[in-house]
Amino acid sequence: MATLNVNGKPHQVDVEPDTPLLYVLRDNLGLHGPKFGCGLAQCGSCNVLIDGKAVRSCTYAVGKVGPGKIVTLEGLARRPPSSRPGRAILPSGRFVRRSRTISAAAGRTRASSPP
Ligand code: FES
Description:
alpha+beta; Ubiquitin-like (UB roll); 5-stranded mixed sheet; 3 helices; 5 strands; globular; binds FE2/S2 (inorganic) cluster
């Protein structure tokens, strides 16, 4: 049993620690913002933020998350508009856009955090 903080809410999940985070988010928590694309940490369609850093959830074991705060596209949509990535920086392409949205949000988090 693990407790995950996803989009600001705690969730108890009963999964093996080596289960990919993507499967837990989609299958156990019903979040469909992160998508399965390549499954090889190459395309970024499964990107989520963990403590502000972009992570490929298809290859990231749920046991590695610990107390980290996970944010998916659904969580980004609830943020105030001023903290969301701008549309101008998003290229066309569905999976690329998902990847870039999370990566842009990760960049904003880093940029707004003092070193
Ligand atoms: S599904 Fe392609 S990087 Fe995770």
